[in-house]
Amino acid sequence: MPDKGSKLAVIGAGAVGSACVYASMIKGVAREYALFDINESKVKAEALDIAQGSQFAPVSTVEGSSDMAVIKDADVVVITAGAKQKPGQSRLDLAGATINIMKDVIPKAVEQAPNAIFLLVSNPVDVVTYAGLKISGMTPDHFFGSGTVLDSSRLRYLIAQHCGVSAQTVHAYIAGEHGDSEIPLWSSAIIGAVPLLQWGETVDGRKLDESLREAIHHEVVNSAYSIIEGKGATNYAIGLSVAQIVTTILRDERRVLPVSTLLDDWMGISDVCMSVPTLVGRSGVGRRLVPVVTPDEYRGLRASADSIRHVASKFGM
Fold first, then answer.
1. Sequence-ordered list of residues with C-beta below 8 angstroms from that of 215, at least 6 positions apart, any chain
2. What is the assigned CATH class of domain 7-145?
3. Residue extent(s) of CATH 3.40.50.720 domains in the chain
4. Residue 85 and residue 231: Cα distance in Å, rounded?
5. pLDDT less than 70: residues of the chain
6. Binding site: residue ranges?
7. Annotated binding site for substrate
């Protein structure tokens, strides 16, 4: 159970922010939930809608407000506010508008919750996390992005479907950018105790060869675009993934999650925020783990870092 006084604040009452609060409340992640948005009628309605279902979840309170003071003294602050991704638009195209929003939001949020751990969800999450870290003046262990936690879940789901196992049995990571240049770490993926590359036949008799793995990777990369085209936004799976990250923090579970953090000579990669397997707990992010990778995977990770830096450089970072 969460600590008696644990408080989760979410900035942005759109589809993603509301899903984060909803998923977290159902899981009993915190004792208090605070939802902030500049649209007062929207944020109050979202908070009330969630709060009125509190009978069916662990005991908690939910408050929504257009006053940033609502997040005061939060233990974790999740930022989902940002420009909305349009059909066919890449995450990196969103950078400029969202960074401008961060320049306004983050200083006010840090003032209200200076001791909180900040989790950035707004896309493009890697570039915005890097910008937000600089804007906040916080240390990298207390300010990081949701990264490829959702992408890795999508990858595990698809592998599970092909292999006829539960997704919980699959251990596989997407690393690099949360976006088009992300890299699946096939060489370290396992199902149970069996390396994925040694699994054998799938449920339809196919081999998990390079062509099938590439098809899975393509589906992971394009999942968000397909969902946005169909319903306008992704929200349920990201809400669940954020709830998992916050649970890991507040309960000090010390899970390994592929969050987006500032790297300092990680496999020779520095001064960029991108996702790598990282130890996460009550103190925020800790050790960035170094998996075994193939030369192709390593080159892909370097290229992904360069892609993120290229976009960041357009905004003076």
1. none
2. alpha beta
3. 7-145
4. 12
5. 1-4, 85-92
6. 12-17, 37, 42, 82-83, 85, 91, 121-126, 146, 151-154, 156, 171, 234
7. 85, 91, 123-126, 151-154, 234
Residues classed as catalytic: 178
Provide the token pair at 57. Answer: 């979840």
Q: CA–CA separation, 47 vs 186, rounded Å?
A: 41
Please check whether residue 71 is in contact with residue 109, taking contact to mean a CB–CB distance below 8 angstroms: yes
- Feature table: binding site for beta-D-fructose 1,6-bisphosphate: 156, 171
Which sign does the torsion angle of CA 247, 252, 258, 260 carry? positive
Neighbours of 93 (CB within 10 A): 15
- Report the candidate in 11, 13, 74, 71 with the shortest Cα–Cα distance to residue 42: 13
**DSSP string covering 35-50:** EE-S-HHHHHHHHHHH
* Strands of the 76-79 sheet, one edge to the other: 61-65, 32-36, 7-11, 76-79, 117-120, 143-145, 260-262, 273-275
Which residue's structure tokens are 């193939």?
Answer: 294
- Residue limits of CATH 3.90.110.10 in the chain: 149-313
Q: Is 192 exposed, middle or buried (0-12, 13-18, 19+ CB in 10 A)?
A: exposed
* pLDDT value, residue 89: 63
How confident is the model at residue 183, as a pLDDT? 97
Q: What is the pLDDT of residue 90?
A: 64
Say what the pLDDT of residue 233 is: 85
Instruction: Identify whether the C-beta of residue 182 lies closer than 8 Å to the C-beta of residue 190.
Output: no
pLDDT score recorded for residue 96 = 85
At 279 the pLDDT is 98
What is the rounded CA–CA span in Å between residue 177 and residue 50? 32
pLDDT at 91: 58
CATH class of 149-313: alpha beta
For the annotated binding site for NAD(+), the residues are: 12-17, 37, 42, 82-83, 121-123, 146
